Amino acid sequence: MPIESEFLLTCVNVILRVPALYIYEIWSRDEFSANIQKQLGADEAAGEGELAPGAAMLDLTLPCLALAIAFLPIEKLVDFYMYVMSAVLVIICAGLCKVYIMTEIEDFEKSGGRNEINLMRLGIHLSLQCLIISVITYLLHLKHWTRFTLLVYTVPIIARLCYVNPYTLLSTWEFGCTYSVILVIILFISHLSQIFDVINQGLHEASVGLAVYGWLSYILILWRKLSMQVQFLLFWVSMFFFRLYINANTLDNPLFEDGWLDGWLLIFLASIGDCCGTAVSVFGLCVTVSYASYATLAATKLYLQGWNGFTDDLMLHGGWTEGFTMFLLAMQTGITELKSEERAFLMSIVLFILVSSLLQSMYEITDPILLGLSASHNKSLVKHVKAVLLCTFLWIFPLFMTYIICSVFDVDLWLLVIVSSCLLTSVQVIGSLVVYSLFFYDALLTEPWEKLDDYVYYARATIRVLEFLVAVFVVFYGTKESIFGQWSWINSSILIIHFYFNIWQRAQEGWRSFLLRKEAVTKILSLPEATEEQLAAHNDVCAICYQELKTARITPCQHYFHALCLRKWFYVQNRCPMCHTTITMPGEGTATEAEQDEELPNEANIQDDVGDDVPRNEEARDDVPANEEAPDQDFID
């Protein structure tokens, strides 16, 4: 099948199935049953909490109709819509006929009982009836004589042409309505066998699919086959814009009393709240949030890298994190049980959380691109300016959001945890800009900047300390609230989890990193520095960076390395990069073979922390003495 035809078929499939979500949304609302009872006039006939027979039948029919639209095969679904459109056209015929009769009665009364015929009106109505019946015949593919029976609503018009009294025409109209109902019943009964065949076939396919794939895989297959995510997106967006139009065009809307901008913001939040009344609409909101987040992240990639930025790694930031966050927040807050005003109030906090998460995802995309521009000495000024401008937005906008949310709500533990995550994004972006500036300055120098690694470490350590202080402040404030305020198990659980992940683990990681750097510096200082005569006699390059050895440190196994390169290596392990001999400081002694095996790190981590220039040896050369250099072949390996 051509791509265009497949895309068109998918669009038709989605559009035809979206009404199922609308039907289920209407059926799920609490006021639906009450309105049906009121319309049927059965409030007194049924007891409290019970439905009248007509309302109960409608209450049962709607979900069945929604299921049929959602899961019918596309061919059967098209036939179903043909019958629905034909039924609507028959109702239009009945309405036009009733309008014609009432107009004739009105003219008859105004003329004082004179039986005059308006031929123009008669011709127009007769032509409309014939045109509509022709459309119905085409939709239903009627070819036998029964199609002429659909002209039943032309009987009053033809009777009027024969000067029949207008009041008598009402009887012919009632006959036409009765005939139409009987015709629909006969048509339904004649198609019962086909309906049961479709149901049986669907159940059989479902049972086979469940047996072959399992219930979870089969649900995912149906989800992709029916493009359910697009259905939910189209359903929720259309419902949202409808509610937005209704709320914005309401006369004397009190939401505009606080100003035009604030009024539109409140209308926006109120419209979102109105579209979260049922589980279906909430799930549609989650899907919409996912697509909106994905579009924002894709636009970020496009802004920074152009079309070359659209790679598979974008799926790692596919917006599903924000959608899943929205789902968890909706489940936690019970948003469907709240009133419309309460939902609008809650949406302001929920959107703050979602935007904070989205800004963090944007930072995760921007950070490696920003640092890559400086580290790779990229000379494209436009790329640098775009990355810096985006980072400027990413650290200013969270501060603005924090100011707005704190000026509207009272600060408590929950709000503090939410705001802290938003502030951390600003702190992280500022840290990335500082590191970018350091790398950019290093690129302008003609000689390698030996202090670059230290300054980068200090900058990142400062950011980590600020993150740590924010986490500690949240814990102290939460503890104060629990002791002197209202205590609850939920707040205590949040504090414990927050303390473990954001304080205890970060403190351990930071202290371990500090000790490793301190030990590496001490080891470097304990190694002798090569003299000019030794460097001239060695006449080689650094085995780590493959650059000329103008200065070097000599390991106990008589290997020469740059002090800076060797220090970075010692951040990962304390073995010689060439022969894997354990390097110890004076007074430490020699490590046992078991201890040396335990100290061997993961090779992937070495490459990540030191660089791709580190030579990879498959195993340690135990047969090489500590005071003897490895063979040339080992150096090449």
List the helices and strands and how they pair.
Layout: H1 3-28, H2 30-40, H3 53-71, H4 74-110, H5 119-140, H6 155-161, H7 166-190, H8 192-213, H9 215-225, H10 228-248, H11 260-274, H12 279-305, H13 320-333, H14 340-375, H15 381-408, H16 413-444, H17 452-484, H18 489-526, H19 532-538, E1 553-554, E2 560-561, H20 563-570, H21 593-599, H22 603-610, H23 632-636
Antiparallel strand pairs: 1-2
Helix pairs in contact: 1-3, 1-10, 4-5, 4-7, 5-6, 6-7, 8-9, 10-11, 10-12, 11-14, 12-13, 12-14, 13-14, 14-15, 14-16, 15-16, 16-17, 17-18, 18-20
Biased composition (Basic and acidic residues): 613-624
Keywords: Membrane, Metal-binding, Transmembrane, Transmembrane helix, Zinc, Zinc-finger
Membrane topology: Multi-pass membrane protein
Written overview of the protein:
There is one protein chain. The model is unreliable at 42-49 and 590-637 (pLDDT under 50). β1 (553-554) and β2 form a beta hairpin. The radius of gyration is 38 Å and the shape is elongated. The chain is mainly α. It has a two-stranded antiparallel ribbon with strand order 1-2. It has helices at residues 3-28, 30-40, 53-71, 74-110, 119-140, 155-161, 166-190, 192-213, 215-225, 228-248, 260-274, 279-305, 320-333, 340-375, 381-408, 413-444, 452-484, 489-526, 532-538, 563-570, 593-599, 603-610, 632-636; strands at 553-554, 560-561. The two termini are 53 Å apart.
